[in-house]
Amino acid sequence: MSESPLERLVPPLQSDAWRVIPWFALAALVLFWLWVPLGWIGVAGMIWCATLFREPARAAPLDPAAIVGPMDGTVTEVGSALPPVELGLAGGELRCIAIELGPLDSHVLRAPAEGKLVRVSRPYPGDGERVALRIAGPSGEVGIMICAEGPGRRVRIGVGEGQTLRLGETIGVVLFAGHAEIYLPPGIEPFITAGQRTVGAETILGTILAAAAL
User: Distance (Å, rounded) from C-alpha 180 to C-alpha 162?
Assistant: First the structure.
């Protein structure tokens, strides 16, 4: 996807930004009314908030069977684990990759696999939020748990069950902090190790084509 020079300098914002940024702007105005230096702190907070919602153009891999990072962030763990029952994934333990958002990362969520979204579940209401997604695609069924814990942190998903997803397309946003757990289909080994950075929609976590060549 091509970008204009302006978009490269100032990426567009994900649509949910306009649910949040006006509150930061209002807070900045109140702080200006109380004391001008506090107002400038509020402006800085508003700018920081806007950066979390930036949605830069991303070039997903040409391999339709690739599984990519669903968000920008840092890989905190690569291992094997039983997927949460909410994902509905059978077959015992699967290879799992955990990715943590940083305070300056884009918090936009991207489709980690191409295929049909067969499940969207919100199993943990209350303090914070967790959303379970399962995608059936060329590489098999991919599960993703998106977690945003703590008051005021939420996961917004803009796609629904039955929808066909393109690899790397925007599917939602995490408000302010969170992490994701990606469960790979059986037989697929991770391409990535703990400590590495991921670029949402671009960093390949694994692919069935490489698995078949082993």
Answer: 22
The whole domain housing 46 covers 17-52
**What's the average model confidence in pLDDT over 139-164?**
86
Q: How many domains does the chain have?
A: 2
User: 212 by DSSP, 3-state: which?
Assistant: helix
Give the pLDDT band (50/70/90) at residue 9: low
In the Cβ-directed half-sphere of 90, how many Cα atoms lie within 13 Å? Answer: 0
Closest among 13, 19, 134, 22 to 85, alpha carbons compared: 134
Output the domain CATH number for residue 151: 2.70.70
Q: How far apart are CA 20 and CA 200, in angstroms?
A: 22
Within-domain flag for 3:
no
Residue 40 sits in the same domain as residue 126: no
Q: pLDDT for 194-207, tens place per residue?
A: 999 999 999 999 88
- 106 part of a folded domain: yes
| pTM for the whole structure | 0.87
Residue 126's contacts (CB-CB under 8 Å, 6 or more residues apart) are none
SS3 call for 46: helix
Using CA atoms, how far apart are residues 73 and 63, in angstroms rounded to an integer?
22
The proportion of the chain whose per-residue pLDDT surpasses 70, expressed as a percent, equals 87
